């Protein structure tokens, strides 16, 4: 390391004396690690200053503070203000736009601009002086003026658009010149509008000049301490900003939180190490560090000195501070890695042996307990020593080897072991000497060993011979063989070939005698297949594993007459996997564990048979229900894919081929694999049994050939079904609806009532005791949830169409008034927020319903019926001067009722006026001098005068807007009928 440091400085430092001094400093401190001195220039894509400092520091350095303007765009800041968003103490001036809203005798909502004379001219009002007033003061003047002009009228004012001001920005900015910005803008906003400060400009000495004085803005204070200083001074029209060139700079490199290039305060003099470290955010780690100062001498040469006093002010323009911790190693640590629940470092003082490092509580469910690796550092070389470890011996206390500092125990997992029999590994063992291009380091290490030792134990031993007959998987390389590449060939050396008793035939490392075996020796066990006759129990059994096969052993004996099965084993399907030595193929024989345990079926076993039993939950996850809920579908697919990855693909295919679908009124509908012909009662039991609403007498069975028949499970429960069939359990017909209806108002017994299918309104009124004497059935209101949803969807669709029309007109460049666009958007917002009533027009008079049964409506769940008492009023709403409720008088005309409400407003559309009759029907009402038709207005009617769509003239949607205004008026009128 010393020689390397001297060579680095020989390339960069011009004087031999300086080189010798650095070497002497390094040699004087043998316990220290060498500081990260520059090794070669670092190319920077920023400014020339950044490139120069980066080359000197040996790491990329950026100028601090300029990222503040990194997201600056050419788009000017928005000036529209949301109504109510501006505080009342805002001082108005020429150019501000005020939204004035009147409600009452006079109603409108318009925008008015404060003119050059400082006045706000509102329609039909005297001019108001606005310039120089606060927004609250203007509101008071406006309210007083409106009250004097139109009694019973409320006035509201809010700032709709903020005026623009002009500020001149010059100096080192990307777009110097006059900037049009909001009156709320600050110095930072103006600089952003000018494209931000250029990297050649100063962030510490920005000058703000205006009539009456000047101020200096330091943007470092804003970014380092969060202090705004002068950066948030509100600008005025005519202000000037000047960004001078960049001042003196220093750089900080090394393990600090914010390495970079920093501008010195103007006129502040040199800084100390402590001050520079604070500028850089502080050190990344506590402890002593070496402080190196790289400066520029009088002749331009670079000088270096070690700073002992962190408080000495030695750093000025062009200096570089390099911070290097004296030590960066870790002491007293050992590590536990791999398939454990909490991998990472452990303290050597508390864990001194293998038995203290590893316990059963540390192991993950995927840990492999026959082989692990202890990795230890070596004193003479950088290579690390690998030694096999038997995890079971460690857990049982037989292996109590002492650990040393830097030791790491790697616990392998099933994925690591499976990779030993993967196709890339087998290909290398068969003779290929070049790993794939994207091979992991473990495969590269194996290829190098095989190429270096063509006559070695791996290239010519039993592993290579076994690889010729094995078929490997395409599993990806585990991370462990990337972290510790030499572990892959070591695990292969200690592997045995297991063809039975394991999920997959292949190489399985063992650590027998590991205490005395090093990385150069191999496993002592011969890699052979056991020759004694045997069979194997796999999966959901109490004691899985290999058993000796005696003559005449049957499947029922192997399962101990069912006692070997776990409680939640899947009862309808198990699989015997048999290897036929004559044809050299595997066959899969399904069986029913339920039938075997009951003694109704049995099968003789052969040598090498593998008996697969499955958990019910695993089968349900593998064969997903075809009508699964949407929210659980993704989770089911994940569990299914995980289980399919653990099982042999052929086993999964056999399970899928033998599935019977069970649908309808069972507790757990879905697919259920069966071994062969299975009784219906067993199939229904596997599906959780019949649900409470099931009707077992009308089940429907569809066979794989397409034949459909009706089945009575109470009599035909022993009837058998086979793979591919489908069974549906029909529910009983429901006499009652799932939810009740409510009847309120003028009935003798109001409340909620359960209804049957096909029940009508007249029967509900009769069940409620009939109408009371002062009931008014002509004004009955029936609200329905399905109708409410339909109206809500209609409102949302109309709002989208209105906004789409506005967008198209703006894109076409059509001359549309800004106030018309604002009103249309306000109308779209009203549509989105409108709460529909869902009213259905019905006839509720029992006498009429008896004579006209065709008018008697059918009820739906959650219907709400309200029978009002006989009203004595007629309501007038909409665009009238004083919406009111007038007394009903027979013979009174619509004009009479409208006159009692003060007559129409200026925004009224009297030609589209209509009546909302008591039963909810709407009828147009013509009000003109040539119309002599007499309209009969019954009590309880609402006379509605809608808003005139003329403000929307010029929009393509003017006709549609008229219809929308009428619909909103009808909705508001209907709600008023319900709530009064």
TrEMBL record:
Keyword Transport recorded: yes
GO CC terms: cell outer membrane; pore complex
UniProt domain Polysaccharide export protein N-terminal: residue ranges: 87-147
Positions in coiled-coil regions: 785-812
Ranges of residues in domain SLBB: 167-243
Chain ranges of the Capsule biosynthesis GfcC-like C-terminal domain: 885-946
Membrane topology reported for the UniProt record: Multi-pass membrane protein
Top-level taxon of the source organism: Bacteria
Keyword Transmembrane helix included in the entry's annotation: no
Name of this chain's protein: Sugar transporter
Source organism per UniProt: Azospirillum lipoferum
